[in-house]
## 1
Amino acid sequence: MAAIAHHSPLSHAAYHDLLRSLRDEAIGDLRGTPTRVSRNGRAYWYDSFRVGSEVRKRYIGEDSPELAARMAQAQDARAPAEERRKERARLVRLLRAEGFLGLDPTTGSLMAALAGAGVFRLGGTVVGTHAFRLYEGELNLRLGFDQTAQTDDLDIASFERLSLALEDVAAPPVQQVLADFDFAPAPSLQPGKAWRWRQTAGHALVEFLTPAFGEEGLRDLPALGVQAQALRHLNYLIADPIPAAIPYRSGVLVQVPRPERFAIHKLIVAARRRDEDRLKSEKDRQQAAFLIAALAQDRPEDLAEAFEDARARGPRWRARIEDSLSRMPDSAALLAGL
């Protein structure tokens, strides 16, 4: 495998400044009082505010020491909103000048609209090639065109149970956001339900996914107001996602799977594809190989933990991983050496 290229330390620092600013902005935009709520052994933070005689709650995130610390600082004196936006736009320009990948205006606007509606705040996680592209900033990797050829597909995954527990919904509704961008629901085997949305003028496709705990099929995601296709192995991929910044306009805050889980999951997905999906299987293996090589250098402990976690989940998981690695001797050697 060719040597892995990296962006400059300046651009890596700029990316994390952008990400930090977007996360602070998300926490600081409170209408009321931060409130901690416990459900089923887990704790969540909400922005509680009054509208007339009614108290409403807007979901912020799952409780963690980092989130609690951010909210403790949320009311501190800060620069005016327009000044903060201009600073983020400056960071985005710096990143683009340094060679960071961008998004076309249509996809960038769609991502920004989905973020504004609360899709990622409410548990939505970008998966697929769009997630792979966003590891450029997280891991400070310079990606080549052959690795990141723009895909028209946008895949968003979320946990059904989390969506049920949040008691908050996207606003405006996700279906309205998609309709504003000329997406229409694609027919499914279940009348009146759709998990895929196709752009009426063009080839863009948005798909909603959720982990299958049992049979695969369609599930409701109440927080997002859409149906999702339940898939096995997806619970491994989207557990404990991380925030990511899209360098578009003044930045868009989303979340993506942890890169080590993405890499191992790609090994499983490549082995599950049917014969007619050979090109997709090869792309899966290429993305997995690239991330395994990068993580073996930069985050070997994280990669080893993700690898062992997947292998410990049963013989079918191990068989699919080994099937892909049998075609990837370099990656197999790196994983064996962790």
## 2
Amino acid sequence: MKLPPRQDSLKWSAYPEDVLPLWVADMDFPVAEPIRKAIQARAEGFLGYPPREGDKELRALLLERTGLQGEVAFMPGVVVGLYAAVAAFTAPGHGVLTQVPVYPPFLSAIREQGRTLLANPLKETEAGYRLDLGGLERLAYASRLLLFCHPQNPTGRVFTEEELSALAQVARKHDLVVVSDELHAPLTYERPHIPLARFLPERTITLLGPGKAYNLAGLPMGAAVGPKPLVEALKRHLPHTFPNVLAMAAWKAALLEGEGWLREVLGTLRQNRDRLAAWAQEMGLFHVPPEGTYLAWLRMPFPKAASRLLEEARVALNPGENFGKGYDRYVRLNFATYPEVLEEALRRLTQALTKT
């Protein structure tokens, strides 16, 4: 087991050494060997400005592997795309729709640019998290933009064809632009990911990136794919930067040669997911095992849960309140680590929870 060097890792350096960090969403595993070799080979070559449109082979690969169609715009990460979408398709004071709980940059992209959050909470059921299509219908009249997350962060929900089709009908009826963050698309378990754009091609911009599935967060890279008029509008609000040549080389190697590594990693993640789910059941905690991502969303028996567990268990988790109003009893736990690390974290959490 080789953990990242503390000085090189935000995840492992943000807290004192006695804290186990299961928070920020990257994996503790080294990158795939073909990706490492591709980065090294590219670093030994020409490192001048690339074409502004990026690597043509990578663009073609993305369309081929995802089944998406349309224009491709590279950008320095998916979060950049969320901010650009809010700027491109709304004006200050306008409402922006999203499901909560949700990855915090969805909320900050709305709040920091002077827009109004129209929160459509996911339905929390014993069978799992579900889209509230009735609530979406009621809010849709007040917005032109829906920011969607699929697979969903933090709940790990992978939405079904039926749900995506129904959402597409609402979006089409209310003339919504939908920006769908599908960064975790390769990280699914029992049910494969289906792009939302399959059901709403004319109104969907899909955001993609290699950072989560191939553990390349330190090489920020993303892409927006969709109809040319929408992507061109988005591009006007993207930073005026060139695509990162090392990130493009890494992403291309991931698509061409990373499948075996990803399959092996998914096996480890599935085991960790199932171990965590069994533990949550033993502890009597509400938890729906994620269908995708390597993130678990857990409801604790007390408020300000992440702060309390950091203090009492010395385990760093993401505070639920960062994912939307009313979620301070929840925590997000990143289980993309070695089984021994997860076991030690669960031991510590058990001790803290049984004291209450």
## 3
Amino acid sequence: MRTKNQATIPDWLKWFTLGLVIFASVAVIIVSVRLTPASNQVGQIDSEVLARQLEFILRMNSAFLGFLGIIGALLVWFFKNNLEDAKVVASTMVREELDRHIQAKIQEEFRFWELSLRTERVIGQTLVDYYLPNGSQEPPEFFLVRNRGFRQVSFCSRLREVRRSETASDVVIFDAQNWENDQGERVVKLTEKGWLVDESEKQVKQQIDELRKILPNYAVLVVYVRGIVGYLNDPKFESVYVLPANNQVTLLGHAANGAFVASADRNPSRSQY
């Protein structure tokens, strides 16, 4: 026989209170076992994303089982005369709430994964020529570019070695920073303010003009030099893909960005990046 206090508790209040407790508990569980933010190391994206998702689901399952035990006592108090139905209702509510959060997290990870794969696909299809006039061996910057994952990075020490016509490269790097003359002296010399001296500016300008003559319009030319090339401020370069890189970081970044520009210019109907 029910006591007076139990008899006066309305059914709607029981359901409302139970629902509020379950919602709050699920929210705590979701926050406590949230996925670790996606890694930026795209080269390991497949294994890392799948591992994080598996770990997340296992931790979520453990939390769910523990949560059922915690609310067991609440169910007995709320539904003393119909405990089996109460378990079904509570389990359904909790599973629906957890499924909603799990699906949202997995969809977020999948979108990042898809974008990363699309990015690497463009990089993996890009041809790069690394041009160092009179270069006897590859400089360290060449290996940085080669290790980025481009389809092919070719070292060129002569202008005639730079690919052209139908087999032209998508990105050409003109290394003026490591350029040396026949006496082993650096060709590029700078003023106190960082501008190229007149003779260096003249020689760099000549190389840029020669490269632009043989490259197709979609190709991106990156001029690598730790100084300011005044010639690149010429208005004519506003309509062509020529840009400077003054350190190793910007060199690698411009080479990768140039891959997307070349891809978009060659295939405007298929490029959606």
